[in-house]
TrEMBL record:
Source species: Thermoanaerobaculum aquaticum
Family assignment from sequence similarity: Belongs to the membrane fusion protein (MFP) (TC 8.A.1) family.
GO molecular function terms listed in the Swiss-Prot or TrEMBL record: efflux transmembrane transporter activity
Pfam families xref list: Beta-barrel_RND_2 (PF25954), BSH_RND (PF25917), HH_MFP_RND (PF25876), YknX_C (PF25989)
Gene3D superfamilies, per the entry: 2.40.30.170, 2.40.420.20, 2.40.50.100, Helix hairpin bin
The protein's name in its UniProt record: Uncharacterized protein
PROSITE patterns found in the cross-reference section: PROKAR_LIPOPROTEIN (PS51257)
Domain YknX-like C-terminal permuted SH3-like as annotated: residue spans: 271-337
Domain spans labelled Multidrug resistance protein MdtA-like alpha-helical hairpin: 92-144
GO cellular component: efflux pump complex
Record keywords: Coiled coil
Domain Multidrug resistance protein MdtA-like barrel-sandwich hybrid: 58-175
Domain CusB-like beta-barrel: start-end pairs: 190-260
Amino acid sequence: MGRFWPVLGLVGLVACGGGREGAPRGPQAVRVKVTAVKPEVLEVRATAVGTVEPEHRVLVAAQEEGVVTELLVREGDRVRKGQLLARLDDRELLAQLEEAEARLSEASGQWQRAQSLVKEGLITAAEADAARASFQVAQARVSALRTRLSFTRITAPVDGVVTARHVEIGSLVASRSPVVELAAGRMVLRVPVSELDVVKLKVGDRASVVVDALAATPLSARIERIFPAADPASRQVTVELVLEEVPAGLRPGFLARAELLLERIPNALLLPETVVMRGSEFPSFVYVVEGDVARVRPVQVGLRQGGKALVSSGLTPGERVVVEGASLLRDGQPVIVEGEQ
């Protein structure tokens, strides 16, 4: 039995040595990167999509029935107020006018004779009144026909650009039928804006407009008017913006996006949106480095915009927030700060 003691002693030494190596260690430090919280100016913006339109769409209609004998403009032509756009066949009206003028000449002579005869007592006052009435009726007839004849010349009521022709030469048009459509006034963009956002806008506010068809070049604009009522179905309000610069290639009907400035927050605490974490104990939290240790800090997040989160409470300027390595952390975890953004 004595020969086994040395072996047992060796086993005991091994067991004792193994116990020292298995002693519990503290949590290992995690390498992280942080950012110092500092106040920034935050511009809260909303994007709305709409269609570029002329400020006014003018439908030029015929005021007299007739056949189109001349059509002097095409789509895209720029016209001035009073410029002749089309002409209707006026031969019948000219003939009627000639007849009416002849009757007027006859009625005028009869009225002049009646004035002389009534003074001499050769006709009664009633007969003189009848002659005068006939003369006045003939005058009115001539005036009416001249007005109708002027309606055969269809002119532009305003300056504008021809956007559509609704007739061709030889077409028979009725009174009040559309002949030409004009785009008049400035170029505007009408966009729908949420009722929650429109209350933060006012007439005169500046905006930036991007037209996709024009290589996304930003255009300056301002709010010209805000419609008085919201759409009952969508709860959106139409906002009209006037484009202050109109590129040569811009046309009515182009799709455009307006970026509207809703609010400017001067001392906003912003963090990258990915830094704000969610958990079962706290809806939103971040890790703040205090000394060499990471601490869980519950925060309240308001607006999220452009990859940034606005922290409304829970942080103060100057605190260091973990931006890389947060997924490896627990509350109280030792950290080694490798860099600061």
